[in-house]
Write a structure and sequence with these properties.
It contains 15 helices and 13 strands. With 390 residues, it is of the alpha/beta class. The chain starts with a strand and ends with a helix.
Length: 390
């Protein structure tokens, strides 16, 4: 039995879910696990509910020398006696590396980088320095995408592998599809948009029927779903550019998520009377059951859980050609350049105007979804990175 410390910074999304999955799986395999991170992460993900311990450690999003020194000292104490420290994210990884500076042998340091560095200016300089610290100190770097792996090799990392970050199994919908469509229609009517056919029964059923054919009724309105944090990385301004249309069937664009850009995005939706609903966070299965297609307009992505969920649900996908997305989707998506609303609009028009294309993509999506790695594969991968038997 090994003692493993998992470290993460502030997370309300995929990183926290991934760490919780690892904690539970490692505990089930007989290891002693301690999760170290901000108190809000325990409230959001209940790491202790998996049988792991939890220690509150403040890891801010931005560098702060005095706070970072206290954090590194705190992590050094928590890591004493551990066999492995596995940090998630660049900030957590760099602080863990500083905490273990001067230690010999164990604990082994593994760092998973879940995002690329896209910041410029002074912040970009600091992050590049943090990358070098991680590259030189970590025994193993797990990169979320091929471009991040290449970048870390260029920074001098000794051993870099691709991370395995699976989405959890897709749950059954908690609400009937008719109720979800009715709610979307009600929210859309509240935006003041006066497009034709607005009613709870006028919204589209899923992209494929049980017979494998795209919906044909002209009065049905397709639902184009985006699941994303409302933040700069997600390229949502490009999605709003493309949402203006016009398109066959008058689709409704549903954005599920929350974040710092919510007010800005809502103001634009209202001002331009766009057929867009900022839905807030929701169970993915509830919205995927009514989605005609899933749109991913991000500037950069690694292995987004939302794309994995769309694949497992067998939904057609239109996504930007960035990061780890092309390798993940294979032939199951239409790919466009990031920040190119014209290209995104053209592919949306193709998908809505060509039922045979939608059907082919949906079938490819379902096949690809069955091929995705599962949680057991992720656990085997991290145990190999730890140098422990699976």
């Amino acid at each position: 039995m090994s003692r493993i410390v998992l470290v993460l910074g502030s997370s309300m999304g995929g990183v926290g879910r991934h760490v919780r999955m690892l904690a539970g799986g490692l505990v089930t395999r007989g290891h002693r696990v301690l999760v170290a991170g901000p108190g809000g992460t325990e409230e959001a993900f209940s790491f202790t509910g998996t049988g792991a311990g939890f220690a509150e450690v403040e890891i801010a999003d931005r560098p702060h020398p005095a706070h970072d020194l206290r954090t590194a000292l705190r992590l050094r104490g928590l890591a004493r006696g551990a066999d492995v420290v596995h940090a998630h994210g660049l900030r957590a990884g760099a602080l863990a590396a500083l905490a273990l500076t001067g230690s010999r042998g164990w604990p082994r340091l593994v760092v998973t980088l879940h995002n690329a560095v896209t910041a410029g200016g002074a912040i970009g300089v600091v992050y590049r320095l943090l990358e070098r610290i991680v590259a030189r100190r970590a025994d193993r770097v797990l990169a979320i995408s091929p471009d991040v792996a290449q970048r870390m090799r260029g920074r001098g990392a000794r051993r870099v592998d691709l991370a395995v970050v699976p989405a959890p199994p897709l749950a059954e919908p908690a609400r009937p599809a008719e109720d979800v469509r009715a709610e979307i229609a009600a929210r859309l009517s509240g935006t003041g948009w006066s497009g034709a056919g607005l009613s709870s029964t006028g919204l589209s059923s899923p992209g494929l029927s049980s017979t494998g054919h795209a919906p044909q009724a002209a009065q049905e309105r397709p639902i184009l779903l985006t699941v994303a944090r409302l933040a700069q990385q997600k390229g949502l301004e490009t999605l709003l550019d493309a949402a203006a249309g016009p398109y066959k069937g008058d689709p409704v664009f549903v954005i599920a998520g929350d974040g710092p850009l919510r007010e800005e995005l809502q103001a634009r939706v209202d001002a331009e009377e766009l057929p867009v609903v900022l839905y807030g966070w929701a169970e993915p299965a509830d919205l995927l059951q009514v989605a005609t297609a899933v749109i991913v307009p991000s500037r950069w992505e690694g292995q987004p859980l939302s794309v994995q969920e769309a694949l497992r649900a067998g939904r057609p996908i239109i996504a930007t050609r960035v990061g780890g997305v092309p390798a993940m989707v294979g032939e199951a998506a239409l790919l466009v350049p990031p920040q190119d609303p014209g290209a995104l609009s053209r592919e949306i028009g193709r998908l809505l105007g060509e039922p045979a294309l939608a059907a082919r993509l949906a079938q490819a999506s379902e096949r690809r979804g069955r091929e995705l790695p599962d949680e057991d594969a992720a656990l085997r991968a991290v145990l190999a990175a730890y140098g422990l038997a699976s």
